[in-house]
């Protein structure tokens, strides 16, 4: 059985258009924004304050259709959608790691947003990575970066 997702809240961001979000090599994602959680879900934020970083799961609500192969801004070669972070996906789900700056009731002030203003938030989870840095492989991106720097 599949479920019908209900937004638990919306992103408040300075980005109104996709072109405004930094892309490509060297793009910095330090923009501040607010995750505005609906009041009925506020009890679910209990104890979130102790986490420095959060996973935000959200919906690419202004993306249409999908492309199984696409050329990302960081390369000249096409790659499979599941090997990229393309907004054009069969299920339009975005995942962003943000830094929690502070909580103000049901408003989480965060740094690192790459979402447009009013983006629906599907879920929030504490960011916990147990993958040692020396076992991470960055696939085609590492190759593309070599050519860049
Ligand atoms: C490359 S995607 C990566 C998003 C996320 N970090 C991920 O990995 O799923 C980021 C781009 O998504 C686009 N975007 C942001 N919010 C969107 C929305 N609500 N609907 C459609 N596209 C959006 C912006 O153009 C932004 O540059």
Helix-strand category: mainly beta
What portion of the residues fall into strands of 2 or more residues? 25-35%
Give the distance, in angstroms, between the N- and C-terminal Cα atoms: 47 Å
Q: Helices and strands, in N-to-C order?
A: EEEEEEEEH
Give the fraction of residues assigned to helices.
under 10%
Return Rg in Å.
Answer: 16 Å
Spatial ordering of strands, largest sheet: 1-2-7-6-3-8
Number of separate helices: 1
Dominant shape: globular
List of distinct ligands in this structure: S-adenosylmethionine
Major sheet:
6 strands, antiparallel, barrel
Low-confidence region ranges: none
| Overall average pLDDT | 95
Number of separate strands: 8
Outline the structure in words:
This protein is mainly β. 7% of the residues lie in helices and 30% in strands. The chain has 1 helix and 8 strands; from the N terminus they run ββββββββα. It has one helix spanning 139-148, and strands at 9-12, 32-37, 53-59, 69-70, 79-80, 93-104, 107-111, 120-126. The strands form 2 sheets. Strands 1-2-7-6-3-8 form a 6-stranded antiparallel barrel. Strands 4-5 form a two-stranded antiparallel sheet. Strand 6 (93-104) and strand 7 (107-111) form a beta hairpin. The chain binds S-adenosylmethionine. S-adenosylmethionine is lined by residues 18, 21, 23, 60-63, 85, 87, 94-96, 114-116, 119. S-adenosylmethionine binds next to strand 6.
